[in-house]
Predict the structure of CoA transferase.
Amino acid sequence: MNPQTEQTRTGPLAGIKVLDFSRILSGPYCSMVLADLGAEVIKVEPIDGGDDTRNFPPFKGPLSHYFIALNRSKQSIALDLKNPDGVKIARDLARQCDVVLENFRPGVMDRLGLGYDVLKAENPGLVYCSITGFGRKSPHGDKPAFDIVAQALSGVMSVNREPDQAPNKLGIPLGDMAGSIFSLFGLLAALVERGSTGQGRHVEIAMLDSLIAMQGYLSQIYFVTGESPQPVGTRHPSILPYGSYPAADGHVIVACLTERFWHNFARCLGREDLITDERFGQYEKRLENRDELEEIICGIMKQQTVDTWLDRLTEFDVPNAPILSIGGALEQDHVAERGLIETVSHPEAGEIKLVRGPILFDGEGPGKARAPALLGEDTHAVLGQWLGYSEAQIAELEKAGAIGAA
């Protein structure tokens, strides 16, 4: 038995068992957060190659960076879901689980004999979550959906650019992650309801729906004005000053979300007169005269360095920040003080750094993570512990190609 499978899960979801058929990002991020919260997660992977992200370079030992990022603290079993014995194992495991998670196209799990109706009949308390690109009822039907597709159809890409520049996808995979985040909301709500009713639910999340739900005030700009918001780069469509401003040696973020911060900023610039200037005194007036005000601000800020402005903005209590690289963000003091990075040991990849989950309970974050598993690393342990299979039975299933093991 792999000693990593003997860890006792701690956290609010300790005792919750999750059977995770998902792959790539939208499902695995969800199940990773469930594991962070204490759930026991069994990741079901195809025998031939496993989750596709296992093959995405660069690598740390045998593990892909992509797979590492989304699959800590899970056990991996390899099943052939086109083999009747593989499907039987999956159904037997689902009978013992609280949650089943999948992100195939609509209808795939039904064709495999693992759809909601089948598994619910065998486990009425099962919370079954399906993440798809567009949902079962959509004119996009069975089209494949990845992050950039959802971003394009959500309207997000149209505003994620400087004016007169080409549309850009977000630097983070928010199309996938929006589906993950809303699936967590749905799953956790369904588990709470099950505590009262004893009955599970089929939670259905579409990535495109999720991104559209995250448009926030942008959708209301359209509903209120009848016009789509236009790209403003790092600026804000309705608040000014807000965004990235040039200094002598780089750029500085300034965010004057309230009138108080605008007044503080004007004083910081040495231009208190701007506060009473009829062109800039109120939100609406500043927007009407955006170009004129931006020219004044940029002309002043270009005269000093980034560090000088960061110190001065902080002194005047103006929300501000430098624009950090990914490496700079991970190495900043905040990350160290908050304990957001931990190191785990893997038998083949060696020491691996991971970004910890951000949720604290009573001041404490997630328990110690388990390193991402090799493909099928836990097949023997899970079949033995969960289903009571003997080593002889497991060996026979492996020989027949129904299961795989590391």
Notes: The CA atoms of residues 191 and 332 lie 37 Å apart. The longest strand covers residues 40-45.
